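**User:** My hope is that you can spare some time for a protein that puzzles me. As I understand it, each token names a local backbone shape. I would be glad if you read both lines and explained how they fit together. The protein I mean follows directly.
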Amino acid sequence: MDRRGIVLSKAGGRYRVFVDGTTHEVSIRGRLKQGADQVLVGDWVVIREHAEGGGTIESVQERVSVLRRRTPGRSHGLRSVAANVDQIVVVGAASDPDWNPHMMDRFLAVAAANELPILLVVNKCDLAPDGSRFGAVYEAAGYEVSYTSVPDRTGLMDLRDRLQGRISLLTGPTGVGKSSLLNALQPGLRLRTRAVSRRSQAGRHTTVAAEMYPFAYGGFVVDTPGLRDIGLWGLEPADVAQAFVEFGPYVGQCRFDNCRHVQEPGCAIGEAVTRGEIAPSRLDSYRRMLEETHSAARPWLTGRAR
């Protein structure tokens, strides 16, 4: 009997597939084993149940989107993360570890390249009473921002409503509390959490591979490994400006048609920063990324499937 389900996780040659409210552990049909990206977390698949128990994935349905990240280390390969994501939720911490605007801007830029809705979450607001100042820069830029605290339960219901009925992928630097947020929203998940290193202020990895969970309020959430760094492979220099949403109204208004918004006279974006219409940190992040794209290997991440 063939049934349709969605892949929750994979480990070795085994896959956990969610079918009609139950989870099945299955293997994969031999002809689908060619290539590392043949079956991803988030894929809608057709499984065939065997009379003797177990089952196999027979086919993968067409994807809406594919998220990839750079292979860890110095290799120039790609590692696919998930398929069919509806929105990307970028999580940062107001404290412990400290808010790093350039790191957050990099996550947002890569997310924007996928042309998917983005929600920025400023977590651990209980540790920084002025945590809203971190999000204010992004609200002014046009991003949706949510402020959360697990101990105080601040913003949890708002976040729950934003996740409801969608396939949401949570990403962000290591140690910012992604797994803790999911545990608070759905206690039965019991995801592993660990404290931030006091010596380095760097988060410790708790999630080792992308894994999807049915969300009790409808939809699914994908927890991803925390990253201490994030590459920009896949972004062309011209794409970097488009990834900064607040630059849009000023594009085409510069004195020079080929303005890179670095040090050119008459740069409309630079002038907007001077007038306080764009945050200086955002322009600084853009310039850093632009320099990186000229020498970075490509691609880093691809968005909607073609």
The first strand starts at residue 2 and ends at 11.
